[in-house]
Design a protein that fits this description.
- The complex is a heterodimer of chains A (about 120) and B (about 120).
- Chain A is mainly β and about 120 residues long.
- Chain A is built from no helices and eleven strands.
- Chain B has no helices and twelve strands.
- Classes of the chains: A mainly beta (about 120), B mainly beta (about 120).
- Chains A and B meet through strand 4, strand 5, strand 9 and strand 10 of A and strand 5, strand 6, strand 10 and strand 11 of B.
Chain lengths: ~120, ~120
């Protein structure tokens, strides 16, 4: 059972370009979470998605950032018109929901975005 | 609101020394508590967890006990190794109807173990 797969591992974008980060959850997992880790900081929650639904986007910046988790294919975190402050490591995690059981989320290795 | 506070690093220890990394939390309701470890250049790996008061999570020689009365979940290891050098994150979960929702992380504590 492959783990959470993120690609690319490293992404370099010039200011003003778009960054597209992909996350394939573990097999059988239908819940995806995106986190951002700024240098010397902990992870900050961005968005929680189920298939075709955004459940909680309270951590997403209001502009330029969007996320989706389509019925088929990976979850995508899209950052439009990137700025230097978007440089960070972006981690995806997935989990399943077997009724009332509490489960942990499994993390991918992250995508390190550098804006130049 | 929900938050996690953990001791600031970096923490530098000699091999075989005793390790404690403090973590306290504030939360509404009854969260689950976690310790994650991040090795250089890698993603986060779950180290241990506890889902209710007085539970003790343990893994790879690390332990942490869910203390509701002190709202703490301190990480301990009796004898650290060089391979334990990493950043350790304390976290709690906000539940959505019984299933874990988003995690709330502390800022992380960097541990360096010298031979």
């Amino acid at each position: 059972n492959a783990g959470v797969m993120q690609n690319p591992r490293h992404l370099v974008r010039r200011r003003g370009q778009e960054a597209r980060l992909r996350c394939s959850p573990m097999k059988g997992h239908s819940h995806v979470y995106w986190y951002r880790q700024l240098p010397e900081e902990g992870l900050k929650f961005m968005v929680y998605l189920q298939k075709e639904n955004i459940i909680d986007e309270s951590g997403m910046p209001k502009e330029r950032f969007s996320a989706e988790f389509p019925k088929e294919g990976p979850s995508i975190l899209r950052i439009q018109q990137v700025v230097r402050g978007d440089s960070a490591a972006y981690f995806c995690a997935s989990s399943f929901r077997p009724g009332a059981q509490v489960t942990e989320a499994f993390f991918g290795q992250g995508t390190r975005l550098t804006v130049v | 609101g929900n938050s996690v506070t953990q001791m600031e690093g970096p923490v530098t220890l000699s091999e075989e020394a005793f390790l404690t990394i403090n973590c306290t939390y504030t939360a509404t309701g009854y969260p689950s508590l976690f310790w994650y470890v991040q090795y250089p250049g890698e993603g986060l790996q779950l180290l241990l967890k506890a889902t209710k008061a007085d539970d003790k999570g343990s893994n790879k020689g690390f332990e942490a006990t869910y203390r509701k009365e002190t709202t703490s979940f301190h990480l301990e290891k009796g004898s650290v190794q060089v391979s334990d050098s990493a950043v350790y994150f304390c976290a709690l979960s906000v539940n959505y109807g019984g299933s874990q929702g988003n995690l709330i992380f502390g800022k992380g504590t960097k541990l360096s173990v010298k031979p």
